[in-house]
Structure formats: structure tokens, C-alpha cells
Automatic annotation (TrEMBL), chain B:
Chaperone keyword on record: yes
HAMAP family linked: UreF
GO cellular component annotations of the record: cytoplasm
Stated role: Required for maturation of urease via the functional incorporation of the urease nickel metallocenter.
Organism ancestry: Bacteria, Bacillati, Actinomycetota, Actinomycetes, Micromonosporales
UniProt name for this protein: Urease accessory protein UreF
PANTHER family (UniProt xref): UREASE ACCESSORY PROTEIN F
Source superkingdom: Bacteria
Stated family: Belongs to the UreF family.
Entry's localization field: Cytoplasm
Molecular-function GO terms, alphabetical: nickel cation binding
InterPro entries: UreF, UreF_sf
Quaternary structure and partners: UreD, UreF and UreG form a complex that acts as a GTP-hydrolysis-dependent molecular chaperone, activating the urease apoprotein by helping to assemble the nickel containing metallocenter of UreC. The UreE protein probably delivers the nickel.
Originating species: Actinoplanes siamensis
The entry's keywords: Chaperone, Cytoplasm, Nickel insertion
Length: 213, 214
């Protein structure tokens, strides 16, 4: 049997990519999703740090997942390459998790912090979330880029900071709708919603739809 | 034997995991031993004469004879004293096979062989010759760390490619030597090593902050 044959849809976990610029809150979102979903779903995480295992260590320190459910992939200065152009190390990590842990419902793949053009390959993930935050300025959705425009879910994070940085959420909402058409956008403040409720609900919907076949 | 097929196999854009590996360069850069294009010249010549020759000979041998894959794999274990480098070689073999299997059917080489064995097996599956497998191996032995040098040191990419062009004849020569020995018994195949790279790899594997997987 070909040891690299792709697993067919129903027999492997749902893979959700989480991308976005540096500091937008990707790792905090992953931690929140682990807290919200860890008791209900068989869950594992792959992190793609730019140069260290910092993100994996953050998840371990915060005790959101046991060590055997987290893998860190090193990306040779090129975080976007590892999630888009050469996805081999991430696929190896996902397969290793599934073979060591048994069947999983959900694998979250967190990209290294990159820029507005970073998106995941469809050979690696089923759905992708792009995380931006209000402190980058309310112009970010208008600037667009593949992450904002094409992600299956856009998360606008740190809404609690909006008054402090002079960001107008209604402008961000309007621009996101204009850029994204029917694709969903959610506003989030992990400081106020430690379980990332709208994102966790979106993922629950994906897992349920997948189980229903 | 298709030349375009050989170019595909040797292309740095092949999604075979190579971008995350520096072939030992990161440890030497951090130690201050490689800082310039001139230093890189020395590093790459050393790489070609040691690991490049070994990789090329084993890739050629694996391409020539599928019945020797297991023995060749064990022969590479014996030639790679650093556990970190053995892991890196198998990780790259696995990733190369993943890419290769999407292009050509390969059976019987296992899930995670050493990279040169994977390369030779793929070259055979693609209808290439042992000599071409050796060229691809020698070429990869220097283009990988050259690309890493551009990223690690911010070297002028044109000067780095000028260096690679100067090294091309030596790359061909090493590949010829390697291919001419591809029928040798595994114990007689080239076994040149680079102890400083072995030590560097073990040291590198313990770092908390690093850019490359090896």
C-alpha cells in the first residue's frame, strides 16, 4: 500500500487552518478553541512558528492540551511556504498525530505570523480562518489580500481595544462585507470571551456537517 | 530518460520539505564560521566533497538496483553518526517520497528512507539513470544550503548563484565519480564525513530558537 496515499474525506479529521499577521491573536484563539472544544471533540494542534516552538510552548504552559496532542513544525524562515507551497512537513505532522493518537475529529493548524497574503493550500486544510485585529487599524479589511478576501471565516479580534486605537468596527464590518461577499466575518474579544464562542460554534457546525456526510 | 523530468526532480520548488533544512549551515552561521559568499564557497565545496559525494553515490546505487534499498539505507545510518542528522535525512526522504509518489509510482521503499535512497528510488521510477540521480543529489547538496544562506545571512542572491554556477563543473565531476561507484558493495561506497557538521547538528537540535529544522 502507498504509505502516502491521501486519506479519504470521511476517515480523517477535519483540518482547519488558522492564519493571520503577527500578533493578531492566532495562538490565543487556538488556546480558546482548545478550551471550548477539547472536552467534546478529539482534537490536536499543529503549530508553525517562524523560528521556535514558542506557540506550542504557550499552549502547553496554559495547559489547554496535553503535549502529545501538539506538534510544532519548523519552517526555515518561510512560514507561508510551509502552509502553501511545500506542505509536506505539516502533512507529516498531521499524519503522525493521527497515527499516534488514533482517529481525531479536528486538527487545528496554526500558521506562523505572516502578512495579508498568507493562505493555506487546499492540499493541507479543509477550511481556513484568517485572524486580523483592530489595533492594526480599521483599514485592514479594505486593503483585502487573499487572507481577508478568501478565508472561509474572517475573525476581527481584540474588539475591546477598538476605542483605544480609534478603530471604527462598523467601517471594518462594511469593508469586510464588500471584500468577502457571502463569506462570514465575526468580531471577537478574547479578553471578554475566553471560549471564542462564535468561532467555536462555526467549527462545531463544520464538524457536524462532516459527520452527517 | 527525459531531461525535463530530471529538472523537475532537481527543482528547488519541488514540494519535498527541503526549504526547512539548512544542511547544517545554520549552526555554522551562528558559530560565526560562515559570514560571507567566500565562506559559503568553502562550506559548499566541503559539502560536495563529503555529504554530496555520499548522497550522490547512494542515490545512484538506489536508482540502479531496487533490491539494495534496505542495505543502502542501513549503509547511510552507519555513515551518519549524528542522530539529529539521521532524523533530518529520514524526514526529507519521507517528504521527497510524498512529492514523488504524486508524480510517479514507487513501491517497496518504505515510508521514511534516508533522503538519497528516496531520491534514487524516485529517479528509477521516473525512468532516469543512476548518473542523473547522482547529479540531482549533488546539485541538491549545494543548492539547499545556498538558499538557506540567502535567508540566514542576507547574502546577495546574484552572487550566491554566481557561486553555484562556478561549482557546477565540480558538481558534475562528483556525480560522475559517485555514479561510477554505484555498483560497489555498500561497505565500499563513499563514506566521507564532516565531524564539525555532525557536532553542529547535535548542538543545533538543542537550541530553543532556530530558523531551520536542521
Amino acid at each position: 500500500m502507498d504509505p502516502h496515499a491521501p486519506l479519504t474525506g470521511g476517515s480523517r479529521a477535519l483540518r482547519v487552518g488558522i492564519g493571520g499577521p503577527v500578533g493578531s491573536g492566532k495562538t490565543a484563539l487556538v488556546a480558546a478553541l482548545c478550551r471550548a472544544l477539547g472536552a467534546q471533540l478529539r482534537l490536536a494542534v499543529v503549530t508553525n512558528d517562524i523560528y521556535t516552538t514558542e506557540d506550542a510552548d504557550f499552549l502547553l504552559r496554559n495547559g489547554v492540551l496535553p503535549a502529545e496532542r501538539i506538534r510544532a513544525v519548523e519552517t526555515g524562515c518561510c512560514p507561508h511556504t510551509a502552509i502553501r507551497d511545500d506542505i509536506s512537513a505539516n502533512l507529516d505532522a498531521v499524519e503522525d498525530l493521527e497515527s499516534s493518537l488514533g482517529p481525531l475529529d479536528l486538527v487545528l493548524l496554526e500558521s506562523g505570523g505572516d502578512n495579508l497574503t498568507a493562505t493555506f493550500s487546499k492540499g493541507l486544510i479543509d477550511q481556513q480562518i484568517f485572524v486580523v485585529d483592530v489595533s492594526g487599524g480599521d483599514k485592514v479589511p479594505r486593503k483585502g489580500g487573499p487572507g481577508v478576501t478568501t478565508a472561509d471565516l474572517l475573525v476581527i479580534n481584540k474588539t475591546d481595544l477598538a476605542p483605544l486605537v480609534g478603530a471604527d468596527l462598523s467601517v471594518m464590518d462594511r469593508d469586510a462585507r464588500a471584500r468577502r461577499g457571502d463569506l462570514p466575518t465575526v468580531f471577537l474579544s478574547l479578553a471578554e470571551d475566553r471560549g471564542a464562542t462564535p468561532v467555536a460554534d462555526w467549527i462545531r457546525g463544520l464538524v457536524a456537517a462532516r459527520a452527517a456526510g | 530518460m527525459s531531461l525535463a523530468t530530471l529538472l523537475l526532480l532537481a527543482d528547488g520548488r519541488l514540494p519535498s520539505g527541503g526549504h526547512a533544512h539548512s544542511a547544517g549551515l545554520e549552526a555554522q552561521v551562528t558559530a560565526g564560521r560562515v559570514r560571507s559568499v567566500a565562506d559559503l564557497d568553502g562550506f559548499l565545496r566541503g559539502k560536495l566533497a563529503t555529504g554530496g559525494l555520499v548522497s550522490a553515490a547512494f542515490a545512484a546505487a538506489a536508482c540502479a538496483d531496487a533490491t539494495r534499498w534496505a542495505d543502502l539505507d542501513a549503509g547511510l545510518d552507519a555513515r551518519t553518526p549524528s542522530p539529529a542528522l539521521r532524523r533530518a535525512s529520514r524526514a526529507q526522504g519521507r517528504a521527497l517520497l510524498r512529492a514523488g509518489r504524486a508524480m510517479w509510482p514507487v513501491a517497496g521503499v518504505g515510508r521514511e528512507p534516508h533522503q538519497p535512497v528516496a531520491l534514487g528510488a524516485l529517479a528509477a521510477a521516473a525512468g532516469l539513470s543512476p548518473g542523473q540521480a547522482a547529479v540531482a543529489a549533488a546539485h541538491g547538496a549545494i543548492t539547499g544550503p545556498a538558499s538557506a544562506a540567502v535567508r540566514l545571512l542576507g547574502l546577495d542572491p546574484y552572487r550566491v548563484h554566481a557561486l553555484l554556477a562556478r561549482l557546477a563543473p565540480e558538481c558534475d565531476r562528483i556525480a560522475e565519480v559517485a555514479a561510477s561507484r554505484s555498483g560497489d558493495a555498500v561497505d565500499r561506497l563513499p563514506a566521507s564525513g564532516a565531524p564539525l557538521l555532525d557536532i553542529g547538528a547535535e548542538y543545533h537540535a538543542t537550541w530553543e530558537v532556530r530558523l531551520f529544522a536542521s
